[in-house]
Protein backbone atom coordinates (compact mmCIF):
# COMPACT_ATOMS: atom_id res chain seq x y z
CA UNK A 1 0.00 0.00 0.00
CA UNK A 2 2.61 2.54 -0.94
CA UNK A 3 1.08 5.66 -2.36
CA UNK A 4 2.87 7.52 -5.09
CA UNK A 5 3.14 11.23 -4.55
CA UNK A 6 1.49 13.24 -7.27
CA UNK A 7 4.14 14.87 -9.48
CA UNK A 8 4.46 18.64 -9.24
CA UNK A 9 4.59 20.56 -12.50
CA UNK A 10 5.71 24.08 -13.25
CA UNK A 11 5.06 25.93 -16.50
CA UNK A 12 8.04 27.73 -18.00
CA UNK A 13 7.91 29.94 -21.09
CA UNK A 14 10.48 28.53 -23.51
CA UNK A 15 12.74 31.32 -24.76
CA UNK A 16 16.08 29.67 -25.54
CA UNK A 17 18.69 27.21 -24.22
CA UNK A 18 18.74 29.05 -20.87
CA UNK A 19 15.17 27.87 -20.31
CA UNK A 20 16.44 24.27 -20.34
CA UNK A 21 18.98 25.13 -17.63
CA UNK A 22 16.20 26.68 -15.57
CA UNK A 23 14.16 23.50 -16.11
CA UNK A 24 17.02 21.38 -14.73
CA UNK A 25 17.14 23.55 -11.59
CA UNK A 26 13.39 23.05 -11.08
CA UNK A 27 13.78 19.29 -11.73
CA UNK A 28 16.41 19.06 -8.97
CA UNK A 29 13.98 20.89 -6.67
CA UNK A 30 11.30 18.24 -7.31
CA UNK A 31 9.27 19.96 -10.04
CA UNK A 32 8.63 18.65 -13.55
CA UNK A 33 9.04 21.51 -16.02
CA UNK A 34 6.31 21.91 -18.63
CA UNK A 35 7.68 24.10 -21.38
CA UNK A 36 5.27 26.52 -23.02
CA UNK A 37 6.12 27.73 -26.50
CA UNK A 38 5.38 31.39 -27.00
CA UNK A 39 3.46 31.84 -30.25
CA UNK A 40 4.58 35.44 -30.60
CA UNK A 41 8.35 35.00 -30.20
CA UNK A 42 10.19 37.48 -28.05
CA UNK A 43 13.46 38.96 -29.21
CA UNK A 44 16.51 37.14 -27.90
CA UNK A 45 18.50 38.97 -25.29
CA UNK A 46 22.17 39.78 -25.56
CA UNK A 47 24.59 38.40 -23.02
CA UNK A 48 27.24 41.05 -23.60
CA UNK A 49 27.13 44.12 -21.36
CA UNK A 50 24.56 46.74 -22.25
CA UNK A 51 26.13 50.17 -22.69
CA UNK A 52 23.63 51.95 -20.52
CA UNK A 53 23.87 53.29 -17.01
CA UNK A 54 23.04 50.19 -14.88
CA UNK A 55 20.66 51.96 -12.53
CA UNK A 56 18.50 53.00 -15.51
CA UNK A 57 18.14 49.49 -16.93
CA UNK A 58 15.66 46.80 -15.91
CA UNK A 59 15.64 43.07 -15.31
CA UNK A 60 16.45 40.76 -12.37
CA UNK A 61 18.20 41.93 -9.22
CA UNK A 62 19.22 40.83 -5.73
CA UNK A 63 19.15 43.07 -2.66
CA UNK A 64 21.29 41.97 0.29
CA UNK A 65 20.94 43.43 3.77
CA UNK A 66 24.43 44.17 5.16
CA UNK A 67 26.13 41.85 7.69
CA UNK A 68 25.45 40.43 10.14
CA UNK A 69 21.86 40.12 8.78
CA UNK A 70 22.66 39.06 5.19
CA UNK A 71 18.98 38.53 4.29
CA UNK A 72 18.43 38.62 0.54
CA UNK A 73 15.59 39.36 -1.85
CA UNK A 74 15.53 38.40 -5.52
CA UNK A 75 13.10 40.14 -7.85
CA UNK A 76 12.53 41.53 -11.31
CA UNK A 77 11.34 44.93 -12.42
CA UNK A 78 10.06 46.48 -15.62
CA UNK A 79 10.99 49.87 -14.20
CA UNK A 80 14.56 51.03 -13.70
CA UNK A 81 16.61 49.30 -10.99
CA UNK A 82 17.11 52.60 -9.17
CA UNK A 83 13.36 53.33 -9.11
CA UNK A 84 12.52 49.84 -7.79
CA UNK A 85 15.30 50.08 -5.20
CA UNK A 86 13.88 53.36 -3.92
CA UNK A 87 10.48 51.69 -3.52
CA UNK A 88 12.02 48.85 -1.51
CA UNK A 89 14.03 51.28 0.61
CA UNK A 90 11.13 53.57 1.53
CA UNK A 91 11.08 53.19 5.32
CA UNK A 92 8.29 55.73 5.72
CA UNK A 93 5.58 53.33 4.46
CA UNK A 94 3.00 52.65 7.16
CA UNK A 95 1.99 49.36 5.54
CA UNK A 96 4.77 48.28 3.15
CA UNK A 97 3.97 45.62 0.55
CA UNK A 98 7.59 44.96 -0.41
CA UNK A 99 9.31 42.19 1.60
CA UNK A 100 12.45 44.34 1.72
CA UNK A 101 10.51 47.36 3.02
CA UNK A 102 8.82 45.15 5.65
CA UNK A 103 12.21 43.82 6.72
CA UNK A 104 13.64 47.34 7.01
CA UNK A 105 10.60 48.54 8.95
CA UNK A 106 10.88 45.61 11.40
CA UNK A 107 14.65 46.23 11.72
CA UNK A 108 15.09 50.03 11.75
CA UNK A 109 18.84 49.74 12.42
CA UNK A 110 19.34 47.95 9.06
CA UNK A 111 20.30 50.22 6.16
CA UNK A 112 20.71 49.40 2.48
CA UNK A 113 22.33 51.46 -0.26
CA UNK A 114 22.02 51.04 -4.02
CA UNK A 115 25.76 50.74 -4.57
CA UNK A 116 26.41 48.25 -1.75
CA UNK A 117 23.17 46.27 -1.45
CA UNK A 118 21.80 45.84 -4.99
CA UNK A 119 23.37 43.42 -7.44
CA UNK A 120 22.06 43.25 -11.00
CA UNK A 121 21.72 39.58 -11.94
CA UNK A 122 20.34 39.94 -15.47
CA UNK A 123 19.41 42.87 -17.70
CA UNK A 124 16.53 42.44 -20.13
CA UNK A 125 13.62 44.35 -21.62
CA UNK A 126 11.53 41.18 -21.91
CA UNK A 127 9.14 40.43 -19.04
CA UNK A 128 9.03 36.72 -20.01
CA UNK A 129 12.81 36.40 -19.89
CA UNK A 130 12.91 38.33 -16.60
CA UNK A 131 10.35 35.99 -14.99
CA UNK A 132 12.32 32.90 -16.07
CA UNK A 133 15.56 34.45 -14.81
CA UNK A 134 13.95 35.45 -11.50
CA UNK A 135 12.62 31.90 -10.95
CA UNK A 136 16.01 30.44 -11.86
CA UNK A 137 17.89 32.64 -9.38
CA UNK A 138 15.37 32.06 -6.56
CA UNK A 139 15.45 28.27 -6.94
CA UNK A 140 19.23 28.31 -7.32
CA UNK A 141 19.48 30.31 -4.08
CA UNK A 142 16.94 28.16 -2.20
CA UNK A 143 18.88 25.01 -3.11
CA UNK A 144 22.05 26.52 -1.62
CA UNK A 145 20.82 28.48 1.42
CA UNK A 146 17.21 28.60 2.58
CA UNK A 147 17.12 30.81 5.65
CA UNK A 148 18.47 34.03 4.16
CA UNK A 149 15.88 34.61 1.43
CA UNK A 150 13.12 37.16 2.09
CA UNK A 151 11.03 36.00 -0.93
From TrEMBL:
Name of the protein in question: GIY-YIG domain-containing protein
> PROSITE patterns of this UniProt entry?
GIY_YIG
Source taxon at top rank:
Eukaryota
Q: Which residues form a coiled coil?
A: none
- The GIY-YIG domain sits at 56-151
